[in-house]
From TrEMBL:
<feature type="transmembrane region" description="Helical">
    <location>
        <begin position="42"/>
        <end position="65"/>
    </location>
</feature>
<feature type="region of interest" description="Disordered">
    <location>
        <begin position="1"/>
        <end position="30"/>
    </location>
</feature>
<keyword id="KW-0812">Transmembrane</keyword>
<protein>
    <recommendedName>
        <fullName>Tat pathway signal sequence</fullName>
    </recommendedName>
</protein>
<dbReference type="Pfam" id="PF11807">
    <property type="entry name" value="UstYa"/>
</dbReference>
<dbReference type="GO" id="GO:0043386">
    <property type="term" value="P:mycotoxin biosynthetic process"/>
</dbReference>
<comment type="similarity">
    <text>Belongs to the ustYa family.</text>
</comment>
<keyword id="KW-1133">Transmembrane helix</keyword>
<keyword id="KW-0472">Membrane</keyword>
<dbReference type="InterPro" id="IPR021765">
    <property type="entry name" value="UstYa-like"/>
</dbReference>
<feature type="compositionally biased region" description="Polar residues">
    <location>
        <begin position="15"/>
        <end position="28"/>
    </location>
</feature>
Length: 280
């Protein structure tokens, strides 16, 4: 006959069992089923491990829930950069201007106004000095050029993203309908002889190829209809992207530019064993 909960009597384990073992069968030694006992110390150990793991998981969950998602995303997808020491990387949704027929200032034929727009992006900013204590984390070693301690020390370096824009600008200048304009002015890359200019242009082309492959965009381009007389499908390039705060990075690079003219002894003289025979 079943007994109700209130009729059930609960009694502590006998003193001899409380510190030595736990009965797993619910039968005493006088029953027909043999008693299987597990050492209490083992049970306590299991409970302790379970409690410890629960505490760790709770702490990790708290960290993940309170951590800045933008910072976490940046750390997971990028290597360390001195830019982030005093610039907060954030993300926002932006719809690309993918217009095919309507040119913006960056697409127009060569002119002072177009050059001014590109220059405002920071395409020709001078490098910044990366402090000694951030050099290793930034990928800089004793093989790289260093600045004399009396001028502040550190390593001269450029923000890679702005170099990519510099390269894109050079490709724009090299387009068949712009080339003659910039060659006639003879500024920047166009002050070099033709073979060097060609190497500069192809260097930029391949750097951008590698960058685009490294950060391949997995978004998709749908199609829209145009031409009511004869409806035709055309790719919709006005897509939405999650972008970093470019202006924050550009402003960092602008603020940290080294002097336009530096003393002759600005850089530490190199160990001749580290000097290559030609440009890398």
């Amino acid at each position: 006959m079943f007994r109700s909960a209130k009729d059930t009597e609960f009694a502590p384990l006998p003193q001899s069992e409380s510190c030595e073992s736990v009965n797993l069968t619910g039968n005493d030694n006088d029953g027909k089923v043999p008693s299987r006992k597990l050492p209490t110390t083992f049970v306590c150990l299991l409970l302790g491990v379970a409690f410890f793991l629960s505490a760790i998981l709770g702490a990790l969950s708290g960290i993940l829930l309170t951590q800045d998602p933008d910072k976490y995303c940046f750390q997971r997808t990028s290597r360390f950069s001195p830019v982030t020491q005093d610039t907060q990387i954030s993300y926002h949704l932006t719809r690309f201007n993918g217009s095919f027929m309507h040119e913006n200032i960056y697409r127009k034929p060569a002119s002072p106004e177009v050059d001014e727009a590109w220059q405002a992006l920071g395409v020709d900013y001078r490098g910044a000095a990366v402090p000694q204590d951030l050099a290793a984390k930034s990928g800089l070693t004793n093989k790289h050029v260093q600045i004399q301690e009396k001028y502040g020390g550190g390593y001269p370096a450029n923000v890679e993203g702005l170099h990519h824009l510099h390269c894109l600008n050079l490709l724009r200048q090299s387009l068949y309908f712009n080339y003659a304009y910039y060659q006639a002015h003879g500024d920047g890359a166009f002050s070099n002889e033709e073979p060097i200019l060609q190497l500069h242009i192809t260097h930029c082309l391949d750097i951008l190829r590698q960058q685009l492959m490294c950060t391949i965009d997995v978004g998709v381009l749908g199609r829209v209809w145009y031409n009511k007389g004869n409806p035709t499908a055309f790719p919709d390039f006005n897509t939405v992207h999650k972008c970093r705060n470019f202006e924050g990075v550009r402003e960092w690079a602008e603020r940290h530019q080294m002097p336009e003219v530096v003393p002759e002894d600005f850089y530490v003289r190199p160990d001749l064993g580290l000097v290559g025979e030609e440009m890398p």
